[in-house]
Write a structure and sequence with these properties.
The chain is 24% helix and 23% strand. With 257 residues, it is of the alpha+beta class. The chain has a single domain, classed as CNF1/YfiH-like putative cysteine hydrolases (4-Layer Sandwich). A six-stranded mixed β-sheet has the order 3-4-7-6-8-12. A four-stranded antiparallel β-sheet has the order 1-2-13-5, with no helix packed on it. Strand 3, helix 2 and strand 4 form a beta-alpha-beta unit. The chain is globular, with a radius of gyration of 17 Å.
Length: 257
């Protein structure tokens, strides 16, 4: 088993027995500051040798090597079929789904929200990288759609979701451009999703968790857990780009047994 300081298991009460998930912390790796120590991203300026070693530390304890996506703050979803067709090429996507045993899906984050998906019967899983851009443009809805396509008898109400560690609503300051992007997108926005900052016109505190819950409920997903961990305030466990600037990334991973 992985040493306990390398990861924690989501507090996901509805997680099916065939579904396994972990979230790595920033501890237990070999990277040096400011990436200390279990940085798993190869695009942030860290030593590639250290990243490879960190990924090896993690992979030894998983049923297979994770599928590392090239995340671009988009809405594309990687599927088993698309990965087969493009075998040998880098997977550019911000979400992935699977119904294949021991295929490990992974998302790297450091303030953006990692979202885990699983069907109630545990035959299908998904993961998504939901920063504000992807969230606004539909990455969660696309992940749900990809799971439904993968399991034709599945309905959105059969999908369970866990919202992973992200920048909290008391720390995520955004400008009017972000607020207007959601307004212009046309979806219902919860009342507390954007709180105006006193005496700072055009500045808001945004709540990624509320926005995600609203978008998921709109497409029929009703079982949503998590959403209580803040990357910005917990400097011991999590990397945070907004807090530190130059920093590493931790991973949220999910697979089927």
């Amino acid at each position: 088993m992985i040493s306990a300081n390398l990861f924690f298991k989501p507090d996901w009460s509805s997680q099916p027995k065939s579904v396994h998930a972990i979230v790595t912390t920033r501890e237990g790796g070999v990277s040096m500051p400011p990436y200390s120590s279990l940085n798993l991203a190869d695009h942030v300026g860290d030593s590639i040798e250290h990243v490879i070693q960190n990924r090896l530390i993690l992979s030894r304890e998983l049923p297979g090597s994770p599928i590392w996506l090239k995340q671009v703050h988009g809405t594309d979803v990687s599927t088993p079929q698309s990965r087969l067709i493009n075998q040998g090429f880098e997977v550019e996507a911000d979400a992935a789904v699977s119904n294949i045993s021991s295929e490990v899906l992974a998302i790297l984050t450091a303030d953006c929200m990692p979202v885990l998906f699983a069907s109630k019967k545990g035959e299908c899983i998904g993961v998504a990288h939901a920063g504000w851009r992807g969230l606004c443009n539909g990455v969660l809805e696309n992940t749900v759609s990809a799971m439904l396509a993968l399991s034709p008898n599945l309905s959105a109400a059969d999908i369970l979701v866990w919202l992973g560690p992200a920048i909290g609503s008391e720390a995520f300051e955004v400008g009017a451009d972000v607020f207007e992007a959601f307004i212009n997108q046309g979806s219902l926005i919860p009342n507390q999703a954007f709180i105006p900052i006193n005496k700072r016109p055009g500045k808001f505190l945004a709540n990624l968790y509320l926005l995600a819950q609203s978008r998921l409920k709109a497409v029929g997903v009703t079982s949503i857990e998590g959403g209580n961990l803040c990357t910005f305030t917990d400097c011991t466990q999590f990397f945070s780009y907004r807090r530190d600037g130059q920093t590493g990334r931790f991973a949220s991973l999910i697979w089927l047994s």
